[in-house]
Amino acid sequence: MVNLAQEKIKAIKDFAHQYIYKLLCDQDLPFILSHLDPQLIGIGAAEHNYYNTPEAARDFIASLNGQIPPCRLLNEEWTVIPLAETLYLAQGRHYLTAAEDQQLLVQTHQRATIIIRDLGSDFSYMYVNLSHPYQELQGTENFPFQVGSQTYRYMEAELAKAKEQLQQKQQQMEVVLQSVNGGVKCSNDDATYSYAYISEELPGMFGYSMEEFRQFTGNNATGLVYPPDLPKALADCKECFKDGNPTYSTKYRVPCKDGSLKWIIDSGRKTKTPEGKTIINSIYLDITKDEEARQSELDHERRTRQQYYDLLSSINSNYYFIYLVNLEDGSGIPLRLPETDCSAFAQYRTNGSYDIEPLIRSHFHPDDSTKILEHFSLSGLRRQKQDRHIDFAMECRSSLCSTEYRWTAFNSTLLAQSDGYHQIILTLRDIHEDKLKELREQQALQEAFNAAQASNMAKNEFLSRMSHDIRTPMNAIIGMTAIAGKNLEDKARLQDCLAKITTASNHLLTLINEVLDMSKIESGKLNLLNEDFSLKEMLEELLDLVNPQLLNKKHTFTMNITPELCVNVLGDKLRLKQLLLNILANAIKYTPFHGHISLEVRETHVRLHDTIGYEFIITDNGIGMTPEFTAKIFEPFARASDSRTSEIEGTGLGMTIALNIARMMNGTIEVQSVLGEGSAFKAIVYLQPREQEAGRSKSLMQTASIDKLQELAFQGKRVLLAEDNELNLEIAVELLKYAGLEITTAKNGLEALDKFKAAPPGTYNLILMDIQMPVMNGPEAAKAIRSLPCQDAQTVPIIAMTANAFPEDIAATLQAGMNEHLSKPVNLEQFQAMLQKWCQ
Question: C-alpha angle 745/502/652, rounded to 5°?
Answer without folding.
Answer: 125
